Amino acid sequence: QVRLVESGGGLVQPEESLRVSCKVTGSVFKFNGWGWYRRAPGKERDLVASIGSNGTTNYVDSVKGRFTISRDNARRTLYLQMNNLKSEDTAMYYCNYYPMPAWQTSWGQGTQVTVSS
Prior knowledge:
The protein is mainly β and 117 residues long. Helix content is 0%, strand content 48%. It contains no helices and ten strands. The chain has a six-stranded mixed β-sheet, with no helix packed on it. Strands 1-3-8-7 form a four-stranded antiparallel β-sheet, with no helix packed on it.
């Protein structure tokens, strides 16, 4: 069973940067696509960015030009570099498969990102 461990969140001021990481075990990491998702207070969990097994990336419009998703297959780790952070980026950030297979129902504990002055 896949295990997802997110880390690197914290409290930052607007316009600052932060990088969050996700260590993946129990899955053939390099052959799968992965995504970063976030859940803001009172909202649903939504996809923020994804990266395919071939390195192709996609982003939601609200983070384009500010966030960069990357992967290190040797370390089985997914990253999300977040620059020029805004208050609306405040959320719990999670990683998981993308696209999400029907059998995948588990999530990691997430890592909290809070952007506030």
